[in-house]
Design brief:
By secondary structure, the protein is of the alpha/beta class. The chain contains 21 helices and 11 strands. The longest helix has 20 residues. It starts with a strand and ends in a 6-residue tail after the last helix.
């Protein structure tokens, strides 16, 4: 039976360690993906012994470290090989890279010069970008697909240094714990852009007393982010749903309350050739106020919020609030189980309290799915870089083989779902579950024997103080 290691299928045999061979074929700079089948045929056919193969590949792998010491850019060579590898075979998994780190001491950053959350090969389409994000975000495929077009256009404009006139702001809606912030952070990582997160519930419009949008950009500049980086930043306006008076429809731009002034401040950012004049303090060389003119044409703007309660506006528009009459009952049945936020319209948003001029600028509205218990379980067990992976990895580094029974993980998923906090609650639950284990950790040492720790459902029930139903 064939087993998939590093994206290649190798039949089980007694001539060599299939996983070790696949790892060496994958990581050796002198073995091209096109040569893989030839090398495997020689090993399987007995033309080359496992010892000979190991000896040769050890030399090739050591050359990576030699090139590093000589200052050569072997990482570009490895990224090119990775791209060719993925064109011919399946993409290596997170477990494959863990094997490389454990057995060869090679991390993704050391091999390719990128973080684990960044794509190793250049992304050439919105489809590739979406596939990269889906490795870590589960249960939100439709949202990722919708947003990937706008984010890829932004990536393309940054990569080729031009101003995109076709990308437009996006609005991401969804209840707490559905992964909005994590998804946007990963899009920013993939685009290799700064992500500036502006909490609209804690800033004031220009002319009002308080902390302003320009102050946030000034903070980024003081922290060392360059103008060239900032001009391609992804700006996330967090808690966008909190800046209006819910239920008050605004039909005119007249007035001077703080909500509308905040909206006007935001709309200025969409104007062509508009620049933010940012005061960053005193220029130490001249002892005069230092100001920067920050162009915004190349930035990407995203709004996010939970919008709890907008379903009532949608129900009213669809006339499914009433409970009398056959036709109304039929409508209620029609929308039963439907996430009503997915039916939101521009008129609903104006009823929420936004200026029509602002809503008209939003190109995409993406609505996150509420996380079911099954999706939470899937995130824990299959998503790259999940919090469960971090616990297992931490234990492994301390010679602890941490294993969770399926029933135990499903209980954590059910509890997180019932809490109403979505995946956000998983981190808290796992911390409570692991506390005593970490407290009782044996003193770690190089020669310490690996200890197996199994977590079952009963231990979860006891730890998080749940009653067995």
């Amino acid at each position: 039976m064939d087993t998939l290691y590093f994206g290649i299928a190798i039949s089980s045999n007694d001539k060599f360690d299939a996983q070790d061979v696949a790892a060496r074929l994958f990581v050796c700079p002198r073995i091209s993906p096109q040569q893989v089948s030839i090398m495997l045929d020689r090993l399987i056919g007995g033309e080359m012994s496992e010892e000979e193969f190991i000896s040769k590949t050890d030399t090739y792998i050591l050359s990576l470290f030699y090139q590093s010491e000589q200052g050569q850019d072997y990482k570009l060579l490895m990224r090119n090989k990775y791209a060719q590898w993925c064109d011919l075979f399946a993409e290596p998994t997170a477990d494959d890279f863990k094997y490389l780190e454990k057995n060869f001491g090679l991390t993704i950053k050391e091999l390719y010069g990128v973080d684990e959350e960044q794509p190793i090969r250049p992304l050439r389409s919105a489809r590739q970008l979406a596939a990269h994000i889906k490795q870590r975000i589960k249960g939100q495929d439709a949202v990722i697909n919708k947003l990937s077009v706008a984010f890829f256009q932004h990536l393309d404009s940054k990569r080729k240094q031009y101003t995109s006139r076709i990308k437009s702001p996006a609005l991401v809606m969804g209840s707490t714990g559905t992964g909005k912030s994590e998804m946007l952070r990963l899009f920013g990582k993939a685009c290799d852009c700064p992500v500036i997160r502006i909490n609209l519930s804690s800033v004031a419009p220009e002319g009002w007393r308080g902390f302003h949008i320009t102050d946030i950009f000034a903070h980024e500049i003081r922290a060392g982010v360059s103008i060239d980086e900032l001009k391609y930043a992804i700006v996330v306006f967090h808690e966008f749903d909190k800046i209006t008076h819910y239920g008050n429809r605004i039909v005119s731009s007249a007035g001077n309350d703080i909500d509308m002034d905040m909206m006007r401040d935001i709309m200025r950012l969409f104007e062509t050739d508009y620049s933010l004049h940012i005061d960053t303090g005193i220029d130490q060389s001249s002892m005069k106020p230092a100001t920067y003119k920050l162009p915004v044409d190349n930035m990407m703007f995203v709004f996010d919020g939970a919008f709890h309660g907008i379903e009532n506006i949608i129900r009213k528009r669809l006339n499914i609030n009433r409970s009398i009459g056959y036709s109304t009952t039929a409508k209620q049945n029609l929308y039963k189980g439907v996430n009503l936020q997915t039916l939101v319209s521009n008129d609903d948003l104006m009823q929420w309290g936004y200026l029509p001029e602002l809503i008209g600028r939003i190109g995409q509205i993406a609505v996150m799915n509420p996380l079911t218990s099954e999706v939470i379980y899937e995130i824990m067990t299959t998503a790259k870089g999940s919090v469960l992976d971090y616990h297992i990895d931490y234990c492994s580094r301390n010679n602890i083989d941490l294993r969770f029974e399926e029933e135990a993980l499903r209980l954590i998923a059910d509890t997180a779902y019932e809490s109403g906090l979505g995946f956000r609650n998983v981190k808290t639950l796992l911390s409570r579950v692991m506390f005593q284990i970490y407290y009782d950790f044996p003193e770690s040492g190089i020669d310490q024997e690996v200890k197996v720790v199994k977590i079952n459902k009963d231990y979860i029930l006891k730890t998080i103080e749940l009653k067995h139903n």
